UniProtKB/TrEMBL annotation:
This is Phosphoribosyltransferase domain-containing protein. It comes from Candidatus Wallbacteria bacterium HGW-Wallbacteria-1. PANTHER family: DNA UTILIZATION PROTEIN YHGH. InterPro entries: ComF/GntX_DNA_util-trans (IPR051910), PRTase-like (IPR029057), PRTase_dom (IPR000836). Belongs to the ComF/GntX family.
Amino acid sequence: MCSLLRGFYSLVYPRVCRLCDGVRVQAPSWWCESCLEELWQTQPVSETAPVCPDVSLNAGQPLGGNLLLMAIGPYEGRWRQEIRQFKFHGDIELGRAMGHVLWSRIVRRFTAEQRTVPKASDWVIIGAPSSPSRNAGRGFEPGEILAQGLSLASGISVQSGFLRRLEGLAQRDAPARNRVENAQLIQPACDQWTHWPDWAKCVILVDDVATTMASMHRMADILYASGIETVVGAVAGRTPLTLVDPPA
């Protein structure tokens, strides 16, 4: 409903940045380059990200080593409100627009490091799974919506049904240690792997928010064990590492 009303409104009034409320922007984005750049600079959002050692299950040892993570910005302030508008109020258009921004971040990072930018010939995109009950309540999978936006911007295909999350303690009610334990509820959907495209050796893992990084590392471990050669993470928001138990 939000997307439909906004689409009608945009026919009459010009689209302006939702963060600064002043600069005109062009679809599909809802944020000006100045605000997005400020988000990028607020925190090192392109980083090699270990699981927070304070919440590791193995005597302080990070789970799965390091994982390259790219985020639009920190999960705080007005950007946190934007992500919540997407996640909890069903603003699908915002989610897909975030996927477009994520692609620009990936291109920026890979170009800066003189690495080959991901291509549709050997990369695929996978959205992080939520529990069935949360999906039923929301009516959509946030990771899948972000993945769709990223796919539209990049031309890289989305592969669905290869990972699943079993029911567990609700993430937003869980302390950091329980979040790490909950990550083990992510499992391969074994009946789907026979359909995995042989040419796909690299994966972009997409999620809405990274907190302890436990879920990202769990998914990466599953993918590496299946024979995938390269996995990178892309999220809309990264919880500041000082917030071990962030608010919902």
